[in-house]
Structure of Ribonucleoside-diphosphate reductase subunit beta:
Amino acid sequence: MQKAKTLDPRNPNKSTGIFNGRSSGILNWNDIAYPHWHKMYKRLLGNYWQADEINMSNDIKQFASLSTSEQDAYLKIIGLLATLDAPQTRTALLLSLYATDSSVQSIMAVIAQQEAVHNESYSYVLSSIVSLDQQNKAFEFGRTDKILLKRNQNIAKYYNDFVENPTTENILKTLTYTTLLEGLFFYSGFAYFYNLARYNKMVGTSTMISYINRDELEHGRFISELFRATLSENPELNNEEMIEWVYEQYKESVELEIEWSQYVLADIEGINLEEMHGYIKYRANKMLRLIGLNEIYPEYVDNPMKWIRAYADNIDGTKTDFFEQKSRQYVKVNAIDNGFDDL
Ligand code: ZN
Ligand code: ZN
């Protein structure tokens, strides 16, 4: 597959295909192939935040009072989250290089920016609470920890395959792993921080995690749409083999996620591993539904980890912080309704 041309006036403004299509490179949000993606773009922008809005002063005092296993898990999980957000920044950009739809390029630019913010936020929280030596160690986990490497092996493989061989099939595979990343891989880590918050520990960090969580939910939603649209634009790839492949990746990812959660959350007060495994399967079901496939864990259609609903399920569409932090500064109200939102 060729990279999309930057400007090509011979082509129409409205794209003829998400990948391998034709488009001039001029973006008119009034005239895009998937009109409701304008709303998605607006929703993504509405989530704007950055790390140093978050007050870490209580977390700085509290970190020393966490148990050794809590401290250890805290650092390992930050290490894990960093291994997801850094490659996602680049993958979002790479997808936009091949997209022949300017609205997709713009949306991916916003997603890439948000992944960059997530990544910096891990440095921000760590630099608040531990020595430089420990910070560096946390970021080394992603390269050195055996279980973490095993857990990330598939995503690394398929993301790199796309770099080396950018075909529509490899894009669909990368999008599948992106739905797993945005909708599954982060969530045992998120749960760890929400669990601390419900015991009133490290609330600053959890607030930051809730902002990241809200972004990832939106990303997951858009990437699922992109996956479905790309599949239906390329019916030759919409076959049993591909669908079977997707189910296999979901099953394997769930197994690896369970193994990881057993390793990193074993001694954490308040976390019931059985419940956590159910939560992982529930997340997998949710993402499969979003990409238009069937649930594979019928016993986990509902969220079995009840306490987490107060943190993770109430994020959508709300601008109120559910932790006690100051009100958000960046959320602007449209003073004049010019009808643009209704396009
Ligand atoms: Zn992210
Ligand atoms: Zn994301």
About this structure: The domain at 37-46+56-342 is CATH 1.10.620.20 (Ribonucleotide Reductase, subunit A).
